[in-house]
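User: I'm putting together notes for a lab meeting next week and I want to include a structural view of one of the chains we've been expressing. I don't have a solved structure, so I'd like a prediction I can at least talk through. The sequence is below, exactly as it appears in our construct file.
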Amino acid sequence: MTPIVSLRCGQLVRSVRATSALTGEVSWSDEQLGTPGTCRTRNLPRGSQFPVPPADRAGMTSELNTDTPEPNTDPDLRREYAPGRADRRKPSANSRTPGSESSDAAAAGRQLAQLMSTEVTGPESFPHRSDDGLFGPGSVAWKLFVDPSAQIGMVCAVLLQALNPNMMRLFDNASHNKADPEGRAKRTGQYVLTTVFGDTEHAHAAGAAVSRLHSMARWTDPSTGDELCADTPAWLEWTHNAIVWGVLRASDLYGPSITAREQDRFVAEMHAMAELVGIDTAGLPSTRDQLDAEVHEQSEWMALTLPAAEAAAGIRHTNWIGNPLKTVPAALVSEGISTMMPDWAKDLYGIREGRARRFAARSLMKALLAGSRNASSVDERLRSSIADADEHPYRRTKAEREAAHHAPEHRS
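Assistant: Thanks for the context. Below is the predicted structure for the 412-residue chain, given as structure tokens.
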């Protein structure tokens, strides 16, 4: 790949290239002029200081590649910003900053940063996308949810959510979706996809739609007269924490590997998703340790009800009748999910596993997920997730619904 910026100090030349701005890294290489075989390449994590040769910077010169594509046209370059950041500065055109040689080097660094923060808004990518939503390319949320393991973590979360006994009683008596668990699971997945990868407006539209559904889901127990409400704060918090814990647990066991600091950051980032459905984030965990403690403490009021057992049956028990190429992997996935749950949840579901069975289940799940990762690159999966969220959001925005209503085909 052609260098974006080359810096030279004496006989040392450092070339910087954009590898994948979507995944957060650039690469740079050093070459000692006149000495063959001295070129070495390293990765620079996103957000790090622009790399310059470790020598006398007063004698440094910079060269900008004039063949670099104009901003907003290269699909391999994408904007990074911290969650919630409102800064929308546009990159300037390629030009050298007049002044000293050291000023040129600083300008080169700034230009690389600008190029690396270019938004993908061209006709070949996402022409109708207004922003990168609640999280964005620099977030841990994108890093985790773009990986196949997040889907496994979401299924684990559903099993944990089902252990809320009163919520399942309400669902069993008041929900119209109990006869269509696959459809409900699909809609839940679409909601998460929209809130994580959709733009801000669609994420808020999705949250508002779910909040309306929660407000209407009510049932009065004829025996006690107690009213059960889907928007009960403790229930909403448990549902949210189960999702965050499940995704992190999948990362722990099956990848992608993230640092303890990134785990804490992910827990805090997900507060933005919680706010969409009216959860008071002051009562939510802000670190991984707090989240683990919260999940453990909730075991005191959890129980396996008949509706929960029925809902979980399709997930935990595989139908062996059919094509082995489908049934065997499904059984392996079921085992891999079961082994993820906390011990108290396993006890409630009646899961008994020895060390050998647990090791085998996790090893096979790792192999399945590795094959899934090898089938497509991170960039391809990310672009697919963004495109799905843009084209098929959980809920269209008000402007889109009005435009569809006033379209010519509706007026005829």
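A couple of points you could mention at the meeting. The CA atoms of residues 210 and 350 lie 32 Å apart. The chain has two domains: 5-116, 140-391.

User: Perfect, that's what I needed.
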